[in-house]
Amino acid sequence: MQKFARTKMACYVSYFTQGIIMNLTAVLFIPLQTLYGLSYTQLGTLVFINFIFQLLADVVFSRPLDSFGFKPFSRTAPLACFLGLVLFATAPYWAGNFLFVGFCAATAIFSTALGIWEVILSPIINGLPGEHKGSSMAVLHSFLAWGMIAGIAGTTLLLYAFSINSWQWIVLLWAALPLANFLQFWEAYLPPTLPQKYLMKTKDLLGNRIFMLSFLAIFFGAAAEITLMQWISSFLERGAGMSKVTGDLLGLCGFALCFGLGRLAYSFYGKRLDIHKLMICGSVVTVFCYIVVALSPATVLTIAACWAAGAATCLLWPETLVVASSALPMAGATLFGLLAAGGDLGTAISSYMVGAAADFFIRLAPQGMAMTAEQFGLRMAALLGCAFPVLSAVFQVLLKQKIMRLRKEPAVSPS
After folding, report:
1. What is the pTM of this model?
2. Does 72 reside within a domain?
3. Which domain holds residue 211?
4. Which of 97, 138, 164, 357 is buried most, with the most CB atoms less than 10 Å from its CB?
5. pLDDT at residue 409, rounded to an integer
6. In whole angstroms, what is the distance from residue 389 CA to residue 143 CA?
7. What is the DSSP-derived secondary structure letter of residue 238?
8. Distance in angstroms (rounded) separating the CA atoms of residues 358 and 116
9. Is 415 inside a domain boundary?
10. Is 75 helix (H, G, I), strand (E, B) or coil?
11. Of the candidates 162, 182, 160, which has an alpha carbon nearest to the alpha carbon of residue 17?
């Protein structure tokens, strides 16, 4: 397995980098709002663009990946990521009066790179021989959490040490990681993709019931996972009255730590467990976590709910990929790309909806409350967010039922 060590490490670093970057804008919400006057809707729009362009990359590059293989995409992604981060950091110097547009353009570039990584990393690990697919995928996706922790803690502490005016230098510091990842992939072994003649046609895949249920399950599962993750920092500071350092380190890093440990634990013990039950139970637990975050008057309970949500949502994305690819083995990399698109679409829509809902409820806040209008708006937005894990549980149940029926009727092709 020494042959695959460089490949695994390159994939791990890619996901580690993605964990840093996908939450970077969220950690910078308050500096960007304070220095440049961005509204919650504009901040939500940046998150929306982030995941929409990841989604577009998932869709656009999934079929070409089966045709051209992993090599060109493994080299393009880190370079695009580096360029996007540099443009984001320097936008105040080159965007002029169109600063928000500049932030949006830079976000689109590095988000496209994140989308390409989503398309290639899971099938690369899935294609390595001699691996327990569920365990390998859990380890790979755990590096997303370690990157989140490094990015959140590192960015927050650097902002605290050097003030919010240093945010541009922090972004440029993180931009060094994709350059290192480019060198890692240059000589790494990459598994072959399936020959085109054996693959399911895209139209057949789109009409497949297992695919459709998997798509909806990952759509709402990712929404449940990422929405809370993206808004914890702002919620704890502006909604619960905590300092930014305390909120980020206890809330956001606590979420990410439980998120990563849950995936790591599954990589060791997952062979003995029913993954469908775990994902259904995780979705249900997340519903209660959202309610606690929205309604709890105690900061300790709010932080505990964030931690519990990290553990509860940790398997919803990677193991839905494993379940779907096991049931549809001839779908190729297109399956991974389209399901990743489903996850990105869910996170884009949900993150924008939470930001817009916060602004809406801030305007509707009743007079004479014990909390501020901003706190009221953020709490109501979090309460609306519990719809995402509810729907995640529903579609995980339907997916399990469909796959169980398929296993009982091996001669009948899925439809």
Report:
1. 0.78
2. yes
3. 2-406
4. 138
5. 64
6. 23
7. I
8. 31
9. no
10. helix
11. 182
Pure H helices in 235-331? 244-246, 253-269, 275-295, 299-313, 318-327
Cβ pair 31, 237 in contact under 8 A:
no
Assign residue 290 the CATH number of its domain.
1.20.1250.20
The residue written with tokens 């042959």 in the block is 3
Residues in the chain: 415
Per the structure, how many domains does the chain have?
A: 1
User: CA-CA distance, 26 to 232, in Å (whole number)?
Assistant: 9
Q: Where do we find the tokens 């398997």?
A: 315
Could you state, in chain order, the average pLDDT of each consecutive group of 10 residues for the chain (415 residues)? 77 91 83 86 83 83 79 91 95 90 94 90 79 71 86 86 90 94 86 71 88 95 83 71 74 85 84 88 94 83 90 90 86 83 84 84 80 82 90 96 78 45
Token reading at 19: 């964990």
Question: How many other β-carbons are positioned within 10 Å of the β-carbon of residue 97?
Answer: 7
72 is written with which tokens? Answer: 């060109």
Q: What's residue 47's pLDDT?
A: 79
As a whole number of angstroms, the distance between CA 228 and CA 35 comes to 24
What pLDDT, on a 0 to 100 scale, did the predictor assign at position 242?
A: 74
Determine the angle formed by the axes of helices 209-234 and 387-408, rounding to 10 degrees: 150
Q: Is residue 414 part of a domain?
A: no
Looking at residue 412, what is its pLDDT?
Answer: 45
259 Cβ partners below 8 Å, 6+ apart? 144, 145, 148, 225, 229, 310, 311, 313, 314
Closest residue by Cα to residue 343 from 22, 13, 14: 22
